[in-house]
Amino acid sequence: MLKLKIYRLLFLLNAKLELWRWWSNIYRVIFESKYSKFNGPKCSSIVDVSRALRAIKYEHDGIKRFIDTVSYPQAVYERGRDDCDGSAIFAHAMIAQNELARPWILSVAWLDEKNKYHGHAVCMYTHVDDGSYSHIGNWNQSMPVKCEDFKEVIGSITFGSVLVGWAVYGGDLKLYSCGSEA
Length: 182
Known about the structure:
By secondary structure, this protein is of the alpha+beta class. The chain has helices spanning 2-31, 46-54, 73-79, 84-97, 150-158, and strands at 57-58, 81-82, 102-111, 117-126, 133-136, 145-147, 162-169, 175-179.
């Protein structure tokens, strides 16, 4: 029964993520075109990114954006608030702008011990020096979580719960990879 639920949720997750990406791009063009260029804070380290990320307050997208939407990083910066994907895109932009590491947006969905569905987005990046992974977002007080491999990244977000699926995007919301196993 659980396996059937996971397959159903994986199908719905794929549809949701495609809608999320599609609607976010439309929303950006219609409502946020003036924010298309990122002029965020200059950062010389991931610690600086972490500090800037702590200034972004959590706020659910709510009805004003119709459905879950990823804003331009500059819009997140100027508003000073957003949800997990807004925090992830903001961190991605700061890391990429300052060439601190190679960043992506990672979206993950899982079932907890009561089979309740959860989802979260973070900025995942690889370290230039050793190729290990870290992720940063609006959990963990915005401090980076360092992991040896991708499987450990997924586990640190899902807390070892049942993985439904994951997707990796670029800062332009282009899908790079997705799957249902870490």
